[in-house]
């Protein structure tokens, strides 16, 4: 039987921006689902304790895209999407630090170094921001 941690890892590594699951589950006793061919049967949870979130709100994602474009001085014709990797957009490690600083300023959050090192895509950044904003509230 798969653990919640394994399911969470699978979700975070294979979730597409178009996949949207309920962010709050209040009366769930167990759930069964499959992600990229892996099956996770009967993940049990205490009611109200399981929280699954796959993608950030569109407005958060749009703000992150705008900040990334601004920090990297990308032309308007450059497409920046949820799946855009910072390295593919030409960002080096200093650029990535500046992007994180811009995100911290825009959203009024503080990103720990460990968390910042896990950000590789625009979606990663948006998901982390939503998590930190929710935690802050």
UniProtKB/TrEMBL annotation:
It is found in: Plastid, Chloroplast. One of its GO terms (cellular component) is chloroplast. Its main location: plastid. One of its GO terms (molecular function) is acyl carrier activity. SUPFAM superfamilies: ACP-like. The keyword Plastid applies. Residues 58-133 form the Carrier domain. Keywords: Chloroplast, Fatty acid biosynthesis, Fatty acid metabolism, Lipid biosynthesis, Lipid metabolism, Phosphopantetheine, Phosphoprotein, Plastid, Transit peptide. Belongs to the acyl carrier protein (ACP) family. Carrier of the growing fatty acid chain in fatty acid biosynthesis. HAMAP family: Acyl_carrier (MF_01217). NCBIfam families: acyl_carrier (TIGR00517), PRK00982.1-2 (NF002148). This is Acyl carrier protein. It comes from Rubus argutus (Southern blackberry).
């Amino acid at each position: 039987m798969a653990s919640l941690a394994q399911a969470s890892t699978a979700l975070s590594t294979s979730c597409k921006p178009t996949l949207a699951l309920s962010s709050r589950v209040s009366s769930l006793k167990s759930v069964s689902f499959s992600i990229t061919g892996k099956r996770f049967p009967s993940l049990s949870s205490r009611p109200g304790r399981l929280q699954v979130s796959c993608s950030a709100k569109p407005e958060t994602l749009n703000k992150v895209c705008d900040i990334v474009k601004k920090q990297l001085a990308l032309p308007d014709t450059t497409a920046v999407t949820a799946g855009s990797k910072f390295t593919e957009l030409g960002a080096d490690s200093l650029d990535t630090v500046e992007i994180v600083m811009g995100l911290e300023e825009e959203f009024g959050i503080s990103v720990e170094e460990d968390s910042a090192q896990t950000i590789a895509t625009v979606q990663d950044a948006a998901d982390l921001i939503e998590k930190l904003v929710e935690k802050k509230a």
